[in-house]
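Quick log. Single chain, no ligands specified.
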Amino acid sequence: MTTRSTRSPRRRTVIALAVVLAVLSGFIIRLVDIQVVNADTHIADSMKVALGASRTLYGTRGEIVDETGQTLAGSILLYDGVLDPKNVGPLTRTDDDGERVQVPWSQIAGEIAAITGQTAQDVQKIVADARAEDPDSQFAYLQRGLTTEQYRALVDIGAPFLTFDSHPARTYPDGAVGGNLVGFMGIDAEPLAGIEKSQNDCLLATNGALSFQKGKDGVVIPGTELEQPAINGGTLQLTINRDLSWYLQQLIAEQVQDMVAQSGSIMVVEAETGKIRAVAEYPTVDPNNVDASADADRGSRLFRNFFEPGSTFKALTAATVLDAGGQTPTSTVVASSRETFANGARVSDAFNHEAYTYTLAGVLIDSSNAGISKFSERVDSATRFDYLKRFGIGAGSAVGFEGEQSGWLRPAAEWDNQTTYNTAFGQGLTTTVPELVGAYDAIANDGLRMPLSLVESCLRPDGTVVEPTLPEPTRVISEQAAAQTREILENVAIQANYAKQIEVPGYRLAVKTGTGEKSDGNGGYKAGAYFTTMIGFAPADDPKYIVVVTLDEPTKVTSSAANAPAFQKAMTQVLKTYRVMPATTAATLLPKFG
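-> predicted structure:
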């Protein structure tokens, strides 16, 4: 029999269980409402308290280095100072007496401004403007592009409402030295010229990102950070020598100014490999301050300009007739200073003289247009055209420099009566400095023309080394013809009227000059305006380096003699830089006349 006393506890238990179940059901219903039914609304509400944010992690653009690893272009860290306007206010500090004191925002603004170069009012206005636009604003730039020194000084202020975003910026330690070659970047970090642009695939970095959440006070919530790492760019090693380029840069600037020329350039190439060891141009551009240079001076004239080469092409004609025409350095022609040929073409020398019985060597020593024209008849025009193409004329170079041009050479079938002879001494066609150096490389390198190169390798971030793919060397002339042409060019260096000006004591040189007329843009030539060239190699008996010096419209001396002082100093410095041994044998003198 159940009594009232036994029913009462059981009843209370049932009631309590029902209450618990009711409460639990309420929690479950509320949980479903929060996490399922109204999830989006509640997430949005929570994000007002826990603010989602992200920060770019900047990858570092790769360095450009010279053949020895010295930096030509690198990256430094700059900092963007960021204020949190909502939380800007006074700071509590400990004074000299150990007392805790409150420093007002106006004073902190003054301390910040003293570092950034602004005024206290400027800094305060940044905060006031941000608050006026959005009272809850937690982001306003204090100043972008702060240096490391400024960054450290600002950190020492100890303001929690001042943070920093770091990012890499480009720097060029040598300034204008090699500026036309290395190129420069735009303000948006886009490569705009030179190696920076043409080799961007190697140098380009990939940015990463750091995402996180932060509270209303701007403090990052621990454990919410998620990082996608940045990937740095590769290291690009060039073939050039930084120290040699520095010297040649000063040298060509001096020569252009001394000769009152429009511009000038020097290029140095290693004969055996085709590697470009130095490039110097004036006027040039300082990649650290591009706006200081005129637009015309920001690219590389050396690669983008083409010109009539003048008498430097006599060496190519001589090599052709030695290789294909059965001639020798002492073969002869009879030529006066003015000659009229069977097809009606007329050719004149730069100086008056009677009919000489010139040797082939003598024609180049005196740089006789008439004499080389007569020698050119000993092979047909089609053959000469074929040899010019094999020398690389009109084909550009393997460098592939940004904006690089090619020379212009019409097929032999299109040569008129005058052009048939003019091409023998460098008129009626155009070339470029890289093409001309490549042609002389064939002479210096036993008849084998090496493709020019400017890039040694790209070292990828993962350690992979990528070397450029270059064309195969081109056999242009026989070893014998190359040796004979070198012997002729050495005699030019010994017997020409500028021989003393280019002499490098202890060394045997081979050289040729060219004075090319400049187009007036209307199918004729510009009066009194010339593009002058001096090109040569050393040692003449075992060529190691080719040096070419150009001047555009020198006015103090209008002939290629204007180039002689710079050529002599440039060649001397090249031989010293690479420790080339002096000659141990004497040159073989060739007769000018038969």
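DSSP finds 19 helices and 23 strands in the chain.
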